[in-house]
Write a structure and sequence with these properties.
It contains 15 helices and 15 strands. By secondary structure, it is an alpha/beta fold. It has two domains: about 5-50 and about 315-415, Aspartate Aminotransferase, domain 1 (Alpha-Beta Complex); about 55-315, Aspartate Aminotransferase, domain 2, CATH 3.40.640.10. Pyridoxal-5'-phosphate binds near residues 105 and 233. It catalyses: L-kynurenine + H2O = anthranilate + L-alanine + H(+); 3-hydroxy-L-kynurenine + H2O = 3-hydroxyanthranilate + L-alanine + H(+).
């Protein structure tokens, strides 16, 4: 049973309130003991910032008022709208502004960047991924290997993350690309991004990162860490909304010489220099920026919502978020730890330096989906299940509360017996 007094949680919230007021909190299902959902699924879909609707509405008004003219004549001309997100996005991941671009969706960006950076040649053909990689990444690397005429079963090597440095030391000459999740979606483990990047480079391989669960969650220094490329989505910790545009990073050293015209790239008109884009020439002008990987017309309404969300992050700053994240996740851990080894097992590293705002629990017996369903229906505690037996709790420092954590522990204790 959770013996921590509710008053302690409420007092912690009063002392350390976060920015919940800037978000819309879903109501709890009827019959739950509190009116608001205790929302722990922000690592799947972040909550809606209060300002998002007005930001989208403003661009809808440009559309109704000016239609096509808005591409150039809107208050925020649509033709340069993606650039409005650049500084905030770059700051979040520790990149120079020209190293990031907001575009497409994560897996699409992964393919676009692998088209450039996965160059199998001779013996060096392998792609290393984690054995618990997110399925889309597994499919994407298999698809790339096959597209190069290779057998994915041989070209793709799946390993526990802990074994990757040793594999690189022993077999590095066969590895073309190391592609890992910065934070593992299932366990919530934060990998040693700079260390693995350095080991990949030492072996002569490219280091690419899927930061879906890391961007906006933990401090990142992609430029200083020398990552070759990274991709992430913006609908989780970045609160950009369902299917919000993704983002990517290409290190400055790959952008030299006009985005290095020699680098192969899958191209489209949005990747040409915006100053000549509408000259409608058949050849492109390369720009020395991640923008060179853009292909198509950007989705302005999605960008508008994301811009509002990034503004909240920019106000908070990663340092504030990360500090509150550690306090909140540590508090949830202290409530769940007494149950670990019993009805649940905590599978996220307990070292705060090796995780972000997620605690995953393996349900010892019975049906994890059924348990998660009861947590929601009876207690208004919304966490998500990753089959077959893991429930993930993400106390998001922007809007989650200590009281949410207390409710989660109460509900788990009540439903696990
Ligand atoms: C780690 C990880 N990689 C990739 C994806 C796929 O993202 P998308 O559907 O935006 O391509 C997800 C989605 O949740 C994810 O969690």
């Amino acid at each position: 049973m959770n013996t921590h007094p509710e008053q302690d949680a409420l007092a912690a919230d009063a002392a350390d309130p976060g920015r919940r007021a800037e978000f819309l909190i879903p109501p709890a299902p009827a019959g739950a003991p509190y009116p608001e959902t205790a929302y722990f699924a922000g690592n799947s879909l972040g909550l809606q910032p209060r300002d998002a609707a007005a930001a989208v509405q403003a661009e809808l008004a440009e559309w109704s008022g000016q239609a096509v003219e808005a591409w150039f004549a809107a208050e925020r001309p649509w033709v340069t709208y993606p650039a409005l997100l650049r500084e905030d996005m770059a700051a979040l991941v520790g990149a120079r502004p020209e190293e990031t671009v907001v575009m497409n969706a994560l897996t699409v960006n992964l393919h676009l960047l692998m088209a450039t950076f996965y160059r199998p040649e001779g013996e060096r053909v392998r792609i290393l991924i984690e054995d618990t990689a997110f399925p889309s990444d597994s499919y994407a690397v298999a698809g790339q290997a096959a597209w190069h005429g290779l057998d994915p079963a041989r070209a793709v090597v799946r390993l526990p993350a802990a074994d990757i440095p040793a594999y690189l030391a022993a077999e590095g000459g066969t590895v073309a690309l190391v592609l890992l999740g910065g934070i593992n979606y299932l366990t919530g483990e934060l990998l040693d991004i700079p260390g693995i990047t350095a080991a990949a480079h030492e072996a002569g391989a490219v280091a690419g990162w899927d930061l879906a669960h890391a961007a906006g969650n933990v401090p990142l220094s992609l430029h200083d860490w020398n990552a070759d490329f990274a991709v992430w989505c913006t609908y989780k910790y970045l609160n950009g909304g369902p299917g919000a545009p993704g983002a990517c990073f290409v290190h400055a050293r790959h952008l030299s010489g006009g985005a290095d015209p020699a680098l192969p790239r899958l191209t489209g008109w949005w990747g040409t220099d915006e100053r000549v884009r509408f000259e409608m020439r058949p050849d492109r002008d390369h720009v020395p920026a991640a923008d060179a990987w853009q292909v198509s017309t950007p989705p302005i309404l999605g960008l508008a919502a994301l811009r509002a969300a990034l503004a909240v992050h920019a106000k908070a700053g990663m340092a504030e978020l990360s500090a509150r994240s550690r306090r909140l996740t540590g508090y949830l851990e202290s409530l769940l730890a007494p149950m670990s080894g019993g009805p649940i097992e905590l599978i996220t590293p307990s070292d705060p330096a090796r995780r972000g705002a997620q605690l995953s629990v393996r349900v010892a017996a019975g049906d994890a989906a059924g348990l998660a369903g009861r947590l929601h229906a009876r207690h208004g505690v919304l966490a998500d299940v990753r089959n077959p037996d893991v429930i993930r709790f993400a106390p998001v420092p922007l809007y989650s509360t200590y009281h949410d954590c207390w409710r989660a522990a109460q509900a788990l204790a009540a439903e696990s017996v």
